[in-house]
Design brief:
- By secondary structure, the chain is of the alpha/beta class.
- The protein folds into two domains: about 250 residues, Metallo-dependent phosphatases (Purple Acid Phosphatase, chain A, domain 2, 4-Layer Sandwich); about 120 residues, no CATH class.
- It is built from nine helices and 16 strands.
- The chain has a six-stranded mixed beta sheet with strand order 4-3-2-1-11-12, covered by helices on one side. A six-stranded mixed beta sheet has the order 5-6-7-8-10-9, covered by helices on one side.
- Helix 1 packs parallel to helix 2, helix 7 packs across helix 9 and helix 8 crosses helix 9.
- The chain starts with a strand and ends in a 10-residue tail after the last helix.
Length: about 375
């Protein structure tokens, strides 16, 4: 038998570096991927879809977000099991008990509200460990598995959990950390035959029977292998065999880190060429980490590259912790300006500040000098589209 394992849809997620138009496209992609994974589940002969938590970004998502998602799931000829996670816990303000969800939820969608196994069909059941608050006071999956009896003979049981596992993220919140030793013991006792996890957005095998599916659409720059769902196959005739787990790429967006050392005009042009070669620019978000030293005119050319990227790419941000770009005026930056009198003295003052030890003043002076070069049209970036 087969089922599809996914998690961390986080419908309604916003990104502050996306303008309203791009945010709308980002939202649409997160909805559309539900149709993609549904079609994949049908084509692969899956009997169910299990979602390991964080279906919604928050418990306050709009009726529109809820209805559009449920409309996608309603069309599927199989059951979909949703687990409340840390973003959408089953608490007093839960979206799961809201009128907007209850009215939109179709019959084939099941919310895993407690630790009671739910039958998919005779011989196949799903059980989940829902979050009931933002800060659990114990290992929720461990509590579930400890309380379970072994699955009846001939029954395949899939357990669904959410959160960090000590074998993967030992630095996470220790109180609610999933203890892999307890999970392994439960698997060996036949309490479950596969554990479908959510919370980690990168597809990760914890053990042969315990996986994070990852997020079906990427959400940030630190994700190693996001954009996947898993098709899991379990041999019902021999439950001692490890499940077969197949990754399927469904994501369409990318978060692209751009880490570059810049020391002159050639490096700026190389960056321009690198960005030009990237595919799917309208679905790619850049994270600039720029280091090095440029002249004012070279910084002007870099600004033109960034302006072009802002038009072509879905969005970009500057990594404040990894960006260290110094601007130092070169002698030939201002030769063509032909300034005299007060203007020439002001230019000399700015150049002195830009080369001084006061970093804040140097940055402001460098910005002013760069603006002067750009307005004069004498920089190496003059004539470029921006």
């Amino acid at each position: 038998m087969r089922f599809l394992h996914t998690a961390d849809w986080q419908l309604g997620m916003g990104r502050r570096y996306l303008d309203p138009e791009r945010q709308g496209q980002f939202d649409a992609a997160r909805r559309d991927v539900l149709g993609t994974l549904g079609r994949l589940a049908v084509s692969e002969g899956c009997e169910a879809i299990v979602v390991g938590g964080d279906v919604f970004e928050t418990n306050t998502e709009s009726a529109r977000t809820v209805r559009q998602a449920m409309e996608k799931l309603k069309a599927l000829p199989l059951k979909v099991f949703l687990l409340p996670g840390n973003h959408d816990p089953l608490n007093a303000a839960s979206i799961w008990d809201s009128e907007r969800f209850l009215q939109a939820c179709p019959p084939n969608v099941v919310v895993l509200r407690d630790g009671h196994p739910v039958q998919v069909r005779p011989g196949f059941e799903v059980v989940g460990a829902p979050w009931r608050s933002k800060r659990p006071t114990s290992d929720l999956l461990g509590d579930l598995l400890e309380a379970l009896e072994p699955a009846p003979p001939g029954v395949v049981r899939v357990a669904v959990g959410h959160g960090a596992v000590d074998a993967v993220a030992p630095q996470a919140e220790p109180v609610s950390l999933i203890r892999i030793a307890g999970v392994r013991a439960a698997l060996e006792a036949g309490k479950a035959h596969y554990v479908a996890l959510g919370d980690r957005h990168s597809t990760t095998e914890v053990t042969p029977r315990v996986w994070y599916s990852g997020a079906p659409e990427p959400t940030d720059f630190d994700e190693v292998d996001a954009g996947n769902v898993l098709v899991v196959e379990i041999d019902e005739a021999d439950l001692t065999l490890a499940p077969k787990v197949a990754r399927h790429r469904v994501g369409t967006w990318r978060f692209e880190p751009v880490t570059v050392e810049l020391s002159g005009a050639a490096d700026v042009e190389a960056l321009r060429a690198r960005l030009a070669d990237l595919p799917d620019k309208d679905r790619t978000i850049l994270n600039f980490a720029l280091r090095g030293t440029l002249s004012v005119a070279e910084k002007d050319a870099l600004d033109a590259v960034r302006d072009e990227a802002a038009d072509l790419f879905a969005g970009f941000r500057d990594s404040s912790s990894r960006t260290d770009l110094a601007i130092r005026p070169a002698d030939d930056d201002f030769d063509a300006l032909g300034l005299t009198g007060f203007a020439a003295r002001a230019l000399d003052d700015l150049r002195e500040l830009a080369g001084g030890a006061d970093e804040a003043a140097a940055r402001q002076a460098s910005d002013a000098l760069g603006l002067l070069v750009r307005l004069s049209g004498t920089g190496i970036g003059a004539g470029r589209a921006s």
